[in-house]
Design a protein that fits this description.
single chain; 4-stranded antiparallel sheet; 24% strand; globular; binds adenosine-5'-diphosphate; binds magnesium ion; ATP-binding; membrane
């Protein structure tokens, strides 16, 4: 995935001010930065939940900012997991996992359920297929949301602060699922405040502030010896 000179404004407010960015196949890129720096907007542009004002986003060489692009196809290839899990409350876990498969991937019931169960097992929740979201802990709901995204067989996964809404004791299980995905070679872009995860699982850390990428590099370098004052100042508050 490659982003070139991406700009995004909301009215007069320019939120992304020329972002250049890439994620290689199989790479885990962690995006860090203060609140309001444009991290979520960047992710939302990448799977076209937001329309970029200008710039190019290529996924496997195909420009997804082209008006001709099939957005449903883009979103099946790029899975997204949000801070708020966004499960359908009136559907059970299995139904949450099969709905999009049946609609967007045109899978039959049996195939969709088989794929769902495989991914529920992967996140350690095969025994909760018939539960409703409200019957699950926040950590379990987030693992269901991850399994739902995986059930579309995405080429890449985007995570927007997936553990920020969770009680501290529930964070570890979700990070463990993400670590396992990374080990399996999934291409991932993760907005997170979990610096331990960024350091241990990330192949690269990108620090954003004020709608620009201030610095990026391998996690040990960016987190351990940041080159820019803005990065140092941010890290001194979160580490
Ligand atoms: P971050 O995820 O780094 O906290 P965001 O991308 O959510 O930052 O927000 C960056 C800026 O964009 C903020 O000033 C926010 O108010 C603004 N913004 C985000 N989404 C919208 C929107 N839909 N309409 C107007 N302003 C928005
Ligand atoms: Mg955000």
């Amino acid at each position: 995935m490659e982003v070139r000179d991406l700009h995004k404004s909301f009215g007069d407010n320019e939120v992304l001010k020329g972002i250049d960015f890439h994620v290689n196949q199989g790479e885990v890129v962690c995006v860090i930065g203060p609140s309001g720096s444009g991290k979520s907007t960047l992710l939302r542009c990448v799977n076209r939940l937001e329309e970029p004002t200008s710039g190019i986003i290529r996924v496997e060489g195909v420009d997804i900012t082209d008006p001709e692009t099939d957005l449903d196809a883009v979103r099946t290839r790029i899975g997204m997991v949000f801070q708020q899990f966004n499960l359908f409350p009136h559907l059970n876990v299995l139904q949450n996992l099969t709905l999009a498969q049946r609609r967007a991937k045109k899978r039959g019931k049996a195939e969709a359920e088989q794929t769902a169960m495989k991914n529920l097992a992967k996140v350690g929740l095969a025994d909760r297929a018939k539960a409703f979201p409200a019957q699950l802990s926040g950590g379990q709901q987030q693992r269901v949301a991850i399994a739902r995204a995986l059930s579309m067989d995405p080429d890449m996964m985007l995570f927007d602060e997936p553990t920020s809404a969770l009680d501290p004791e529930l964070v570890g299980d979700v990070l463990e699922v993400m670590r396992q995905l990374a080990e399996e070679g999934m291409t991932m872009m993760v907005v997170t405040h979990e610096m331990g995860f960024a350091r241990e699982v990330g192949d690269r850390v990108v620090f954003m502030d004020g709608g620009v990428v201030v610095e990026q590099g391998n996690p040990a370098d960016v987190l351990g010896s940041p080159q820019h004052e803005r990065t140092r100042s941010f890290l001194s508050k979160v580490l």
